[in-house]
Structure formats: C-alpha cells, structure tokens
Amino acid sequence: MWDKKDQKDVAPGSFATGTGYGNTMHSAPSSSPSSSPSSSRLVNIGQTIFIKGELTGTEDLTIEGRVEGKIELKDHNLTIGPNGKIKADVFAKSIVITGELFGNAFASEKVEITNAGILKGDITAPRIVIADGAQFKGSVDMDKGNAPRTAPQVSRDQVRPIQTVAGDASVQQKASLPQSAPYTPAEKR
Amino acid sequence: MFGPIFKRRTPPELDTQQGPPLAAETRLQPSHVLPRLARRLTHLPHPRILDLGSVVGGNLQFFIDLGCKVTADDLLKPVETILPEAGVPGTDWKGPSAKRLEHPDMSFDAVIAWDLFDFLAPTEAKVFARDLLRIVKPGGIVLAFFTSRETERREPHRRFRIHSQDKIEWISVGRSRTLRHVYQNRDIERMFDGFKTHTAFVLQNGTREMLLEKKVATPAPPSAASLAAPAK
Hints:
- The complex is a heterodimer.
- By secondary structure, chain A is mainly β.
- Chain A has a domain at 42-141.
- Chain A has one helix at 4-7; strands at 24-26, 43-45, 50-56, 61-63, 66-72, 77-80, 85-97, 100-102, 105-113, 118-120, 123-124, 128-130, 135-141.
- In chain A, strands 7-8-10-13-11-9 form a 6-stranded parallel barrel.
- The longest helix of chain A is centred in the first third of the chain and has 4 residues, at 4-7.
- The model of chain A is unreliable at 1-39 and 151-189 (pLDDT under 50).
- Chain B is α/β, with parallel strands linked by helices.
- In chain B, 22% of the residues lie in helices and 29% in strands.
- The radius of gyration of chain B is 19 Å and the shape is globular.
- Strand 13 (135-141) of chain A pairs antiparallel with strand 3 of chain B, so a sheet runs across the interface.
C-alpha cells in the first residue's frame, strides 16, 4: 500500500483534508505474517505525503514525510528518515530517529537518535542510543525501578569506563558500577 | 606584588591569544565533584536530575544507572548550529533567557549545567541561576563549570562525556568561537544567591568545577496559636 510505486498515485496531503484525528490506517495486508522476518517488506512514506490521524501497521516502516497524530507499529521497527517530520506519540519495537519527532517515543526494544535527529518528547525504552550531535529535550524512562542502585567510588583502581561506540555516544552498554559506598559530606576546599 | 591582582582584563576584541586550536580537541580530565554528586544521588529516593548542555547519551546512562530519572534539555545546541564559519567570531549567543526553563518549581534533585554559564553574560547568568533556584528542590545540587582564567576570550564550547566515575572527557565542539566570560568566586556567589558552595575544585586546565547546594529554608518559628493548639 505504501510502496514507492503507490506513492505516485497518492496526492500530497490527501490524508490531511478534513479527516482529523482518529482515522486509522493499516499499512499492511492481513495476509502478511508479521512474525516471519523474511516476509517483512520495507515500507516507505514518501516526502510529499502528509498523514493526519492514527497510523497502525504490522510491518517495518520508514517515514520521510509528515505525520501528525499517533503511530503504532507495536512489534515492528519505525525509522524516521532525514526528511521525516512527526508530531505524534510513537509506539514500536525499535525507533530510529534521523529526522524530527515531536512527541513521546515508546519502544519495547530500543530508541536511537542519530546525530542529525531531533526528539522533543519523552522516551520510554529499555535501550537508548543518542549520538553526539543529536538534539534531545525530554525525559528518559528506562524502567529500571526495580534494579539495584549502586554508587560509584572515587577509587581509580575500580573504575570501569562506560563503553561507547566509536563516533557516537552510545548508551547501549550499561555501566558497571562498583558496590555502594556510604555518603560522606564532601569537604570544602 | 599586586600586579596579578590588578591585572586588567583584556577586551575580547583585543585578545591576541586565540585560545585552543580550532580543530577538534579531546582531553580526559579528572573530576572531583562527579563522584560526590553520584554518591549523594544514590542515597536519595528516586532522584530526578536535569542535564543541561550538549546531550551525550553515555551521560544519561550514567545517571540512569544511579537510579535517577533523567531529563535532558540541550540548551547549547543553538551554539553548535547557528554560529558561522571557523575562526570567525560569530554573533554571541544570547542564552536561554528568552525562553525560561519549562519545568515546575522544585522538581529536580540535581541540575547538571555543563559548559554553560561561561557563555552567558552576567545579567543573563544571574537570571538563569535564579531560574535554577526555582526548579531545584531545597538541598538540591547544581553542578557547574567555570573558567578561572583572568581574561575573557572567544572559544569553542565543549561537550563533556563521562568516561568513568571520576574522569570526564572534554571535547571541543564546533569550529566557531563564542565569548567565554570570566566569573570570579564572588561573582558566582552573587549569581547563585540562595545556594551555598558545597564543593569546589580548580582543575589543572584552569577550570573550576563546583557543586552548589540550594539552601534549605529555615522553618519559621511556630506561632503562638499553633503552640496553643491541642495535639491530635
């Protein structure tokens, strides 16, 4: 439905005229099994497309156009391309932001903001990757409420660096912090 | 004897020392305040922190691992994107005053203001510090960096990446230079009226890293009427 071939037949803004919020678009036919990776297709929303409403689907999606409303891909990956401009809350397995997202990002697996990406909204995901140069304004919820809290120690012998991916600041790797140390008021100097 | 004390600040336009090289510069510096802040946050229930400045993913992860709920606000992004070509002093950043921090009063246990205050003009810095006073909880902490040089000069701003628990990687960002103001201790005390200095260190590279703690308001003495009220 959203293949490039089909985009030529869709007039720009055709989904925006008077439809308002609450319109649901299913981007994949029900016959395509979502669990089979081999059957997953790359579906694009082109630069000239503007969708206003609720967008749901059961396959991976790349957006280069504009979407306002809500995007729900649940068990699939969403990529917001360099030209993509989204004003919506986004739900997906994995979200990669190279364009702009004004809204909250909920991912069951990972949210990644590339160095050209802009996210103004809150992130809820177990893994987050924010590249150097990325623009982010919002809160991060990694659902670590039950995880044991540890405190770093000053000793340099025990420090372990937070691992980063070359060229960007990745937060995929969890910092390994030593055992908790009791807080003592720091001296004034 | 008094030479260094009364040494005049060189106006920025006359400053012949052009500061650090324009090429990307990376340095690993020790941090004395970060472990202290981390230990303090560890002992707070569900601390909330605000990270101001260039957003670095690894830094967010560091604080998340401490059990913090992290909010990021990239106030320095305009400096990276607006200023012009290499070596050309650009239009000075006007700072974030036009748009106040959009956070409720007393909503954060700590605020990390990386390489931020030096690029704010004095009046701007004071207004911004007052806004921090508003959003920080009593007893909350502000981590901030200030240069301790004697002269103001134009420099590229820096991005800070927490490398380990007591080391921070300093990375010069961008190729344009912004005027870095010099604030003495007395200036900082006036700027952060309502805070007290918790910890301050001067690093070998001439940067002061400071932890400023918001004063806890002294409770008002109980009124005669409340003392007279029967205990429930």
